[in-house]
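User: quick one - fold this with adenosine-5'-triphosphate bound?
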Amino acid sequence: MTENKGNIEIKNVSKVYPNGTIGLKDINLDIKQGEFVMIVGLSGSGKSTLLRAINRLHDVTEGEILIDGQNITKATGDKLHKIRRSTAMIFQNYNLVKTSSVYRNVMSGRVGYYPAWKAALGLFTKEDQEMVKTNLSRVNLLDKYYVKARDLSGGQQQRVGIARALMQEPSVILADEPVSGLDPKTTKQVMNDLKKLNEEDGMTIVLNVHSIGLALKYSSRIVGLKDGRIIYDKPIEEVDKRDFKEIYREAGDDSHLDAGDDVEAD
Ligand SMILES: Nc1ncnc2c1ncn2[C@@H]1O[C@H](COP(=O)(O)OP(=O)(O)OP(=O)(O)O)[C@@H](O)[C@H]1O
Ligand SMILES: [Mg+2]
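Assistant: Sure. Structure tokens for the protein plus adenosine-5'-triphosphate:
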């Protein structure tokens, strides 16, 4: 991977939805290449809104977001396309085409490198076909190459989602609750795959979770959101589990604190 790619600067970002709901309020975050940032917070605190703002799946109302110094909030056309390509997204519901093969789903992560007509005709280079195999191997699913996505387990589908993201050759991976709905063993596989990309390839990872337990095990930094604001931001070395008791107790909900405790990081 190219040196020093994967920096995210979020400056004074606010987002008000068209119906007047405040999604984000004056967010400032500086995320450096190679960080594994976990965003925690109660339902409705703004985690998904923040993630979607980073690769501009939606526009913000105020402020700006820079990816490796490039302003994605203002970019258009080819420039926007290129910045977006460097930030791959992984979704809670996997977003696969269920009736298509694993191969086709993974290759779809590459279409941003082709003119639309070539992609539509499936005219992918030999190198890119090899790249599909390489990336499927990385998530241990090469044997599922021809299988339809709908015939895979949830954890396998999510790992196809990771392989698809890798086809973008991203410097940033954004993951919106990629493991909720998965059992502990599968959660561990998916989280370890992401950790590997972070450690071996130096990819920056920003991941939303409900589970503090997971955040404590895998992140290098934890950011807490509440009502669209950052109320917590610490490197993992400084994090004290009791901090979250305060954050969650206010909402009268302790369930987030233990989840993920049965998932051991390797
Ligand atoms: N499309 C939308 N239109 C209006 N309001 C929205 C929209 N999407 C989200 N919101 C509101 O913005 C706030 C933040 O929502 P967001 O989805 O970012 O929360 P979240 O932290 O991801 O929650 P969850 O843990 O449930 O996924 C909430 O008040 C939510 O109701
Ligand atoms: Mg969400």
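One thing worth noting: Residues 184-201 form the longest helix (18 residues).
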